[in-house]
Amino acid sequence: MDDFVRFLRDRELNSEKYEKLTPQGIDYISSSKIKDIFNLNLEIYAEKPQKDIHDFVGTFRVSSEESSQDGSLNVENVLWANTVLASGRVVGVV
Description:
By secondary structure, the chain is an alpha+beta fold. The chain has 2 helices and 3 strands. The chain has a domain at 24-77. The two termini are 28 Å apart. This is SERPIN domain-containing protein.
């Protein structure tokens, strides 16, 4: 547990460096209007919860008349309970 606490502290102290190394998430939605998300043809697969969060497996597909885009989901795409977003926006699926 000490390694995990140390990692969180290092991440807080070096947040700028951490942000550069961490993927920013999935950015396939071009509209800035939140209501447009309901018009997407979006499929998400996520396996059932398990104790080992690092083995989480999930996929998504955003389809339109012209094309479709596939991607993977993993533990880096998760917002935990009581997460505080410092800036920007997040749209999530529960």
